[in-house]
Structure formats: structure tokens, C-alpha cells
Amino acid sequence: MYLHGTSSINEDNHLTIGGLDTVQLAQKYGTPLYLYDVELIRQRARAFKKAFEVQGIKAQVAYASKAFSCLAQVQLVAEEGLSLDVVSGGELYTALAAGFPAERIHFHGNNKSYDELQYALKSGIGCFVVDNFHELHMLNELCEKTNTQTSILLRITPGIEAHTHEYILTGQEDSKFGFDLQNGQAEKAVTEALDSEAITLLGVHFHIGSQIFETAGFILAIQKLYDYLAKWNNELSFFPEVLNLGGGFGIRYTEEDKPLEPKEYIEAMINEVTRLSASNSVSIPEIWIEPGRSLVGDAGTTIYSVGSQKDIPSVRHYVSVDGGMSDNIRPALYQAQYEAALANRAGEKGTKKVSVAGKCCESGDMLIWDILLPEARTGDYLAVFCTGAYGYSMSNNYNRIPRPAVVFVENGEEQLVVKRETYEDLLRQDLPLKNGVLAGN
Fold first, then answer.
1. Which residues are involved in binding substrate (predicted)?
2. Which of 136, 165, 179, 356 has an alpha carbon 20 to 30 Å from 197's alpha carbon atom?
3. Residue 398 is labelled as binding a ligand
4. Residues with catalytic function
5. Burial class for 178, CB neighbours closer than 10 Å (0-12, 13-18, 19+)
6. Has 390 been labeled as part of a binding site?
7. Are residues 222 and 308 in the same domain?
8. Total-model pTM
9. Is there a binding annotation on residue 290?
């Protein structure tokens, strides 16, 4: 069993995280239960920041909050001195409610609404990452109407494909995101932004994909972008103050995954930006990055209770747990793979191949198809590792299943940061028919 972060096995043969017994936590807070290793999140945040500091490069490390957002997580990000990416009014509202400095918030998204733009402008956020002409025009009109100034980056689609799952590629030419370099959209957007009196064009942004284990894609995208930046510098007198190189840094889900250390990604990026800036006789821009999964992914563990089992001789043995696609939709959506262990028998060797099924009424609700576990028994606790990114944030109430609780653990201390939903919560927005019939019938 691969132990992430502060995870260990105690004398009772139980999995511990942050110095706490996960079995005791499961018994106290119920299951399914999301546990977050706060020390590991802090280590990752500091590693990304240090990678820039040792190189003497001006930078911002912005946590991509879509990976996991709640008040406590946003406060933790603020404590570590990071900036914050949001992609919706809801994420922005959470950030502001958590007291996050508005000037360190960057607003992403390919279809920001008028109300979201207005809300963000009134809140005084630091930067919009503008995705398309519709947004550029709407933002410019809003600024003029309210006599407001704002800063933007233009999201560029560099036409570079990362080696990752086809559904989470975002940098290739055929993408719903950004202004394309090759067909002239990006240059037109630069020209329009420079012509605006209400908008300050700070720079450009790209994001080439997710779960990336090498630096070649980033380097190719930087090289391709610099070809155009040199042209814009000569013809439009524009060179970016800020170059946002996105995120997508991979983590280890299974033994097949071989992610790099944060400094390896950053050093490769800095070296290429430095080389190309020198060859074009321009100053090195401020570099921004957007780690999300790589900050919280392997810091999260979900604890489930084992329930029913079904054995089909010579075919498959199913072990069912009390969660599934309602708290982790990634296996159904992306065919994501995970490792797991019995939290209450963590030191025992796996001897039986089983498939872990969720409880939703869907044949596709499978968390893990084939894994070796000790002989599982009803009431055992199953720990599924690396669920910190896009678990809680993509959770849902399918089959009217309440969302799990979230607990932070660090140095032997625990804190409930998201309450478990109740059945009453499921009805909070429901309205019954008046007198049992529709009005007018």
C-alpha cells in the first residue's frame, strides 16, 4: 500500500492520517467521509512557491479552486499566501465569504454571465481571464457603464495537446476554451483589448490539459506562444507583463502514474521563458501558474463502509460501499483509477481480487473495477486514496443521496469543515404543489 503524505499504519493496524485514526474518525463523523491531509496541502503549496523564489522570478501561484472549494480550504490557501482562481459566481462568493483578498482572485470561465462579471467588478477582483469576444465586449461595456477600470489576461489556445485523457484536453486547436493563435483570433483580441480605455491587458494565459507527467508540452506551448509574442511586440508594441502557464501538473493515483516534483515543472518553464525572453530582447514577464489537483488531489482520502457483496463464480466478486458516483463521479466520467485499502485492517496483504461498487442505481457506478483486498467483511472501512480533487467539488445528490462530510486533519487535530447533508437538506429548495394541484387546474 502506498502511503501518501502523513499517512501511516498504527499499532491497531488502522490507517492514520495527520496523526489521527481514520477508523475512529469514520465512527465519529459517519461514512462516506472525505478526509484532507492539511500538512500535505501546505507542503505542496510551499514547494510551488519556493520553486520560483530560488530562481528569483516574480510569480503568482494561484490555487484552482474548482478542484475543491469550501470556506476552510479557501482560508488555508490564503494562509499559504497563494492567489485564487475561480470559475463561477459561486466560487467567487465562497472566496469573498472566506475573507480572501479580492485583489488576488482571478476569474476564469468560458461563459461568464453579465451578473457574474458585474459581481466580480464590484468586488474589485485582481484579474479576469477573458475567454472569448463575447466576454471581452461585455466586460468592456460594463466597465464603461460603471466607470470602472479592470485588468485582464487573454486565454490563448496554443494548439498543443498534452498526453492526457481526451475529455480533459484544453490546449488543442479544437477547444471550447480561448482565442486561437493560428486563425488570428488571438491577435484580434489583443488589438481590441489594447484599444479599450477601460481594460488593462496584463498578459496572456494558456492551459494545455490535466494530469501531465512531463514538461515537453509546456515547453512546446511556450515556444509557440513566443513566436506570436515577438510578432505582437514588433507590430502592436505589446509584450505581456504576465504570462500565465496554467496548471495540469499530475499526481500519483496508481503505481503507473509517475508525476514530477513541483520544482521540475517550474524549472523547465522558467528556463524556457528566460531563454526566449533573452533571445527576443524583452524582460522576463511575471509568471503565474494554476495548480489545483496537484495541491489537494493526493491529500484527500474517502472512507466508506463496506456493505453487501455479490460473488459470481469464475466471473467477479463485487464489494459494495455506502457511496459511489454521488461522491466521486470521476470513475464513471473519466474512467479514473484509484488505489484503496481496508482502513481498519490496513497492514493486511490483499489476497482476493474484487471490484468495488457504489450504491447508486446505475450499473456504471463502480469505484474500482479490479483490486486486491483482504477478505472484506460487512462493516469494514474502505479507504480510497487521492480523492481530494474533483470528489467533493463534483459530488451530487443523485438518488437523493446526501453529500458526505469533510474533515481536515493536521498534527493530531481534526476539524469538521463541511457538515454532512441531511435528508432535510435535500428538501430545502423543494416546493410542494398548492392544494395538491397545479394552479389553474
1. 293, 330, 334, 362, 390
2. 179
3. no
4. 361
5. buried
6. yes
7. no
8. 0.95
9. yes
